[in-house]
Each structure stands twice: as C-alpha cells, then as structure tokens.
C-alpha cells in the first residue's frame, strides 16, 4: 500500500505587467484542476474577463473560478470589498445560472469594506491633481487601504454586526467629513445616508462572511488551491512605477498575507503576460506606441478597460518589465496571452534594456524620474502573417512565432507553460501541465 500523501499543488497566478494580461481567462482555465480559488488583494478596480461557450463574463470581485460548479471561491482578507458591487455581482452570476449553492462563496471577515466616502475621496483627489493624476479607477481602492493601514478601517466582520457598524461609522465620519469638506471641497455624508443601505448590504452578505484563513487551513492538505492576483507587478505599491501604482501589493508574496496561509503552502507561481504590453491610467510606459502600430494593437486586441472602458495604452513587449516580474514574484512558469493579436505585422520589436544617460539599464529603475528619461533598446524580429487562433500545438505555429516564444523564454530564464491564442477558454497551446 502506498501511504505517501497525494501531492496537492497550490499555485499563485499573478499579472507580470500593468494588469489586464488575461489573468481571468487563465484562472478560469486552471480552475478545471483545482478545488478552491482565492482572490488575495485589490478590489473592484480589477476587471477579469472570461469567455466560455461564446458567452462573456466580466468579474470585478468574485474569483474567476466561479463558473465551475462546486469550486469554492474565496474573497480573502487582503481584498477590499465594495458591498454594493459584491451583491450586484452575486446577483448577476446567479442570474446567469452560476453559484447555485451559497456555500461556494466565502468572504473573509477580515477584509476591509469600501464605503461611499472612500469613493468620493478617490474621485475628488484625482480631480484636484489635474494633469498629474494617477488615473485611478475611482472605486475608492486607495482610500480604503489607507484606512486599513491607519487602523481606522471597517471590516466585513464589523459590517455584518449592526451595532458595531453604527459605532465604527460614527467615529470614522467624524474624521472623514471635515476632510471631505475642508480639504477636498466636497460634500460631507450624513450618518443615515450610509448606514441605512450598508447595514442591509451587511445583512445580505452575512451568509458568506467567515474566517476564511481558518477554512483554508482545514482544507489545505486535501484540496488544490489557486490564488488569483489582480492588477500586475508594475502596479505593485512597492515594486511598481510608484506613485503611478495601485494601493496593494500585487506580487506573489502577498498571496499568503492576503489569504491567511503560510508560504510553505505554495508550490508554484505562474506569471501572466501579454505578447505585447498595455497600461491603463497615467505613469511611465517606456515601450508605448503612439503611432499606427499602437492603434492596430488596440484595435486587434480590443484593448479597452474591462472596468472603466478607457482605451488601453499599447506598446511592444518589454523584457525589463518581465525580468523584474520574474524576480520579485519568484516565477516558476509564464503564460503568454494574446499572441494571436500580433499576426499580420511584418516586424516585431522586443525591448531588451533601457538607454539612460549613455548607459544601458537591464533592471527596472526604482525612480520614475529615471524611468521617464529612459529610451527603450529594441531587438527587431520577424513577424508572421498567419492567424493563430485555431492552432493548438507548438509545432503547428509559424516558425517566426516559435522563435518569438523561444526568445522570450531564453531571455527570462523561465519556462513558458502555456500560450493563449484567443479569448475563449479553449484557445490555448499547452506546453506544460503545471498540476
Ligand atoms: P485580466 O484583468 O488580466 O483578467 O485581463 P482582462 O480581462 O482585463 O483583459 C484581457 C482581455 O483580453 C479580455 O478581453 C480577454 O477576453 C482577452 N483575452 C485573453 N486572452 C486572450 C488571447 O489570447 N487572445 C485574445 N485575442 N484575447 C484574449
Ligand atoms: P486587473 O485585475 C489595469 C490601474 C488604474 C490606475 C492605477 C491605480 O483587471 O488587471 P486604483 O483604482 O487601483 O487606485 O488605480 O491602477 N489599475 C489597473 N490597470 N488592470 C487592473 O486590474 C487595474 N486595477 C487598477 O488604471 O492606473
Ligand atoms: Mg482587467
């Protein structure tokens, strides 16, 4: 008899660029192999698109495993939850025939709540900054994380207890209202204006709220767990293009802190990267293309934000950005998405380093002043004309496409585990089974 325990790999999936790499599609696909999917940071600034049987679903808060029956989806403690949006998303998912059992969705009682004043502060601050604005999604993400760290936040566990929620809300409004009025020139909130609707949201959400770290501990030896990142490495509050970043750690290390499991539980980290680069919002983007090639990528790749609808800035693949992602996330594998979008271009460019004041930088500079002065150094490679969306094996790819893939792999020193050639669940070339 073989008494060795069965290996239950737990994998983290994160974005390797500035978000929108196709994480949602990849997490949905990988969910076929797992039992639990956990979101560990960010909030409804995320927009994760899943295309299954021709039907498109965009998820902002609920983990991208939700279209698989019986899989537990967890909104971890590291996520900031807008209760109104969360309920809307639950209703939409249910109306589409998913989440038949309420026990399949769990929300951490430690997760912080996005309240109306967070959203108003976010929007007013951006307005005040004018041209220097970050270009946030306006969803209140930054102000909510600020309150968490300042120890004045309201958590899901507070929201579902009406008396506690009332007490906490009164305390917080006493500070927020003068700030809103006097500093930001905005309108203050009345207590009832927030309390009445939010106490009801709390009641409706209470069936999902629990200690999700405890749940994960109970199942971790028996079940496979997928940790779903939001945003991307270059938007990380420490390692991104600060201050043009989001307000959470988007890198793999936060999967543990944001879900309440130890690092010993993790067996692999998969980075997701587009075959080119995009960015939404302000901030440096060395390989950005403000020409007809950039326009072509936006059109072919349908590069419009899944959350705000804003056109995404487009540019060539940047290996400096990706090398940085390999390092700070400890990537064990990479998925390359949207390779199909590059078909039809005669020549492609890959950025291998940055030219700065006469020297070549191979690593991401920490200062955006330096990054703003960097010029990308490109290697030009041959493109391909053939459409790729029907191809399912590496060998059937055009030779130039194969070379493009191998060049990236070699430059990064990390294995490509999959190539995505279309938005649908089945439009992939699997190179290695990570489970
Ligand atoms: P996420 O935030 O990382 O989950 O990515 P988004 O969903 O915001 O953006 C990725 C977009 O690309 C979505 O519209 C996906 O449906 C689409 N997509 C994902 N993979 C592919 C692919 O391989 N090819 C094409 N053409 N589209 C893809
Ligand atoms: P997914 O998970 C792309 C960007 C915003 C802005 C900056 C800060 O879909 O990849 P925030 O509202 O977070 O304070 O905005 O971060 N941003 C994203 N860009 N994809 C995302 O998520 C993003 N979430 C936030 O555009 O530049
Ligand atoms: Mg997105």
Can you give me a brief rundown of this structure?
The protein is α/β, with parallel strands linked by helices and 435 residues long. 31% of the residues lie in helices and 20% in strands. It has 13 helices and 20 strands.
How are the SSEs ordered, and which strands pair?
Elements: E1 11-15, H1 23-30, E2 36-39, E3 48-52, E4 55-59, E5 72-75, E6 80-81, H2 83-95, E7 105-108, E8 112-113, H3 116-129, H4 141-149, H5 156-159, H6 162-183, H7 191-205, E9 209-210, H8 212-219, E10 225-228, H9 254-257, E11 268-274, E12 277-279, H10 292-300, E13 313-315, E14 317-318, H11 319-329, E15 333-337, E16 347-356, E17 359-361, H12 368-373, E18 375-382, H13 399-412, E19 416-420, E20 428-430
Parallel strand pairs: 1-10, 1-11, 2-5, 2-10, 5-7, 6-8, 7-9, 11-15, 14-16, 15-19
Antiparallel strand pairs: 3-4, 12-13, 16-17, 16-18, 19-20
Helix pairs in contact: 3-4, 6-7
This protein binds guanosine-5'-diphosphate, 6-O-phosphoryl inosine monophosphate and magnesium ion (MG).
């Amino acid at each position: 008899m073989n008494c060795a325990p069965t290996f239950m790999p737990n994998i983290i999936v994160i974005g390797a660029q500035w978000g929108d790499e196709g994480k949602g599609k990849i997490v949905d696909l990988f969910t076929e192999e797992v039992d639990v999917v956990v979101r560990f940071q960010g909030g409804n600034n995320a927009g994760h698109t899943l295309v299954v049987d021709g039907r498109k679903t965009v998820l902002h808060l609920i983990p991208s495993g939700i279209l698989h029956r019986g899989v537990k989806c967890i909104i971890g403690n590291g996520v900031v939850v807008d209760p109104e949006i969360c309920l809307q998303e639950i209703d939409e998912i249910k109306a589409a025939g998913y989440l038949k059992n309420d026990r399949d969705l769990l929300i951490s009682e430690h997760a912080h709540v996005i309240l109306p004043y967070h959203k108003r502060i976010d929007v007013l601050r951006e307005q005040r900054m004018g041209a220097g604005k970050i270009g946030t999604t306006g969803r209140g993400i930054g102000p909510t994380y600020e309150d968490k760290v300042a120890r004045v936040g309201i958590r899901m566990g507070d929201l579902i207890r009406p008396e506690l929620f009332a007490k906490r809300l009164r305390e917080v409004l006493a500070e927020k209202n003068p700030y809103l009025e006097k500093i930001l020139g905005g309108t203050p909130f009345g207590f009832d204006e927030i309390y009445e609707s939010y106490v009801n949201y709390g009641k409706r959400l209470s069936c999902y709220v629990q200690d999700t770290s405890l749940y994960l501990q109970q199942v971790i030896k028996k079940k496979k767990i997928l940790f779903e990142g939001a945003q991307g490495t270059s938007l990380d509050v420490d390692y991104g293009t600060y201050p043009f970043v989001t307000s959470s750690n988007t890198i793999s290390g936060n999967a543990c802190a944001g879900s309440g499991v130890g690092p010993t539980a993790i067996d692999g980290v998969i980075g997701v990267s587009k075959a080119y680069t995009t960015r939404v919002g302000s901030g440096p983007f060395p390989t950005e293309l403000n020409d007809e090639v950039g326009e072509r990528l936006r059109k072919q790749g349908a590069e419009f934000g899944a959350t705000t609808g804003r056109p995404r800035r487009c540019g060539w693949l940047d290996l400096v950005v990706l090398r940085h992602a390999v390092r700070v996330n400890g990537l064990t594998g990479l998925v390359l998405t949207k390779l199909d979008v590059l078909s039809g271009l005669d020549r492609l460019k890959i950025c291998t380093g940055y030219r700065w004041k006469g020297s070549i930088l191979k690593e991401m500079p920490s200062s955006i002043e330096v990054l703003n002065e960097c010029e990308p150094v490109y290697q030009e490679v041959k493109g391909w004309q053939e459409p790729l969306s029907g191809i399912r094996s590496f060998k059937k790819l055009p030779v130039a496409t194969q070379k493009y893939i191998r060049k990236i792999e070699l430059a990064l020193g990390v294995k490509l585990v999959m190539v995505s050639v279309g938005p649908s669940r089945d439009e992939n070339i699997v190179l290695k089974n990570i489970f």
